[in-house]
Amino acid sequence: MSKRQPANTSSQRSPSVSELSSLTEQAYQQLEQMVATLQLAPGAVVSETELCSLLGIGRTPVREAMQRLAREKLFQILPHRGCIVSECRIDDELNIIEVRRPLELLASRGAALRANPEQRKRFAEIAAAMADALESDDFEAFAKLDAEFNRLCLIACRNTTIASMMRLISTQNRRFWFMHHGRTLPREGVESHIEIARAIAAGDADAAATASERLLVYVESLARRSLPSA
């Protein structure tokens, strides 16, 4: 009788807490990007199974990422049915811009003053890459750079209160942007992003705030042009 071979459990082991946390963050960032760029359109109904298959990530981290997006008012969880991607309304956009203005000015100033050398280098690289994306009209490249720019700005400003509040509205900000522009890149808006990134890289807080205000004025003008005629 042959000896019983020990079971190979290496491929069956449960992921560690740190691995789950990493997978959850990965799932969140991918879903956030899809919501922000309208790959998951407002009003779309998606299931947990569909999202797991789409992302190639297991149920637990995907479920946790979905719950995080629900807390940010981007998903509406439907018990035992999946979720609905939240709708976008112009009134919501104007309210978010009103809240966003003082927070973003503080975040851009803080990042310019407090970013470390490695972060400043990355801001300069992002600015250069955004300029390349604008000239080649590469929407996908800009969308990824925009998401990285937002995350890096919140890290570099070193103010956890601002970062926490901005994270609640950052995806909505980006989603409104892509709803207005589709998959095209408006020069005025992209150039404002480039100016902010360059100012932060140079440690110029006043220039970063000025460029941020210019971007916000532009974004608000887009929203107001979308209001129905009286």
Write a concise synopsis of the structure shown.
The chain has 230 residues and is mainly alpha-helical. The protein contains nine helices and three strands; from the N terminus they run αβααββαααααα. The protein has two domains: 18-85, Winged helix-like DNA-binding domain superfamily/Winged helix DNA-binding domain (Arc Repressor Mutant, subunit A); 90-225, Four Helix Bundle (Hemerythrin (Met), subunit A), CATH 1.20.120.530.
CATH homologous group name of the largest domain: GntR ligand-binding domain-like
Report the top-level CATH class of the largest domain.
Mainly Alpha
From the 3D structure, determine the CATH topology of the largest domain.
Four Helix Bundle (Hemerythrin (Met), subunit A)
- Give the beta-strand count: 3
**Which strand order do you get reading across the main beta sheet?**
1-3-2
- The mean pLDDT is 88
**How much of the polypeptide forms β-strand, as a percent range?**
under 5%
* Main beta sheet: 3 strands, antiparallel
Domains counted in the coordinates: how many? 2
- Determine the N-to-C terminus distance: 88 Å
Given as residue ranges, the uncertain stretches (5+ residues, pLDDT < 50) are: 1-11
Radius of gyration: 20 Å
Helical segment count: 9
- The portion of residues assigned to helices is over 70%
What structural class is derived from the secondary structure elements?
mainly alpha
